[in-house]
Write a structure and sequence with these properties.
It is a single chain. The chain is mainly α and 100 residues long. It has one domain. A two-stranded antiparallel ribbon has the order 1-2. The protein starts with a helix and ends in a 5-residue tail after the last strand.
Length: 100
């Protein structure tokens, strides 16, 4: 793998990591904290249980994407390898492939 290819893959992985982090920090984390605050102060929603489940699922999915992006980035930086479990490695919704 040439230096140019490595740099391009690293940039894509870093972009995917930043996107996953932004997704987690912006919407899902705030929604989760807001829902937790609502239940702590007794201001339950009309269907608080379903709302909490929805927020929890979104929060968990965002954390999973962030964790996967971080692991893929670290593996590439430390070992120079892409995730070998997939034919076309992905970070979240981003395909990470060597440039042609």
């Amino acid at each position: 793998m040439s230096f140019s290819e490595r740099s391009q893959i690293e940039a894509r992985l870093l972009d995917a990591l930043a996107a996953a982090k932004a997704e987690y920090e912006s919407s899902t984390k705030q929604q989760f904290e807001l829902a937790m605050h609502r239940t702590d102060d007794g201001l339950g929603l009309s269907d608080g249980h379903a709302a909490m489940e929805h927020v929890e699922q979104a929060h968990n999915a965002a954390m999973k994407n962030y964790r996967l992006a971080l692991m893929n980035f670290n593996r590439f930086i430390l070992d120079g390898k892409l995730n070998s479990d997939e034919s076309r490695p992905q970070v979240g919704a981003y395909n990470i492939e060597p440039p042609q």
